[in-house]
Design brief:
The protein is mainly alpha-helical. The chain has 4 helices and 2 strands. It has 2 domains: about 1-40, no CATH class; about 45-75. The longest helix has 15 residues, at about 60-75.
Length: about 80
């Protein structure tokens, strides 16, 4: 998720994400800002609630499957 936010910030600032800057890809120079945005928006807490619900055996299986599918799509990996 951090890399996606970094790449979006690059685009917002008119920078090509994969351009080399100080020996690294330009997007890597935005990691601190991206983390501040992600944390400031409360995304980690929100994802924690969704993960908990997705793993709760009291939740109907179809709801858990939907939540896990949404997490996979959002994070690009299995929860």
């Amino acid at each position: 998720m951090v890399e996606r936010v970094c790449r979006a910030l690059c685009g917002f600032h008119g920078n090509a994400a994969d351009t080399r800057f100080e020996g690294k890809a330009m997007w890597e120079s935005y990691v601190e800002k991206a983390c501040q945005i992600i944390n400031g928006a409360g995304i980690p807490a929100f994802l924690g609630v969704v993960r908990a619900a997705a793993g709760d055996p009291a939740m109907p299986e179809n709801v858990r499957a939907s939540l896990n599918g949404a997490l996979d799509a959002f994070e690009g990996e299995a929860p």
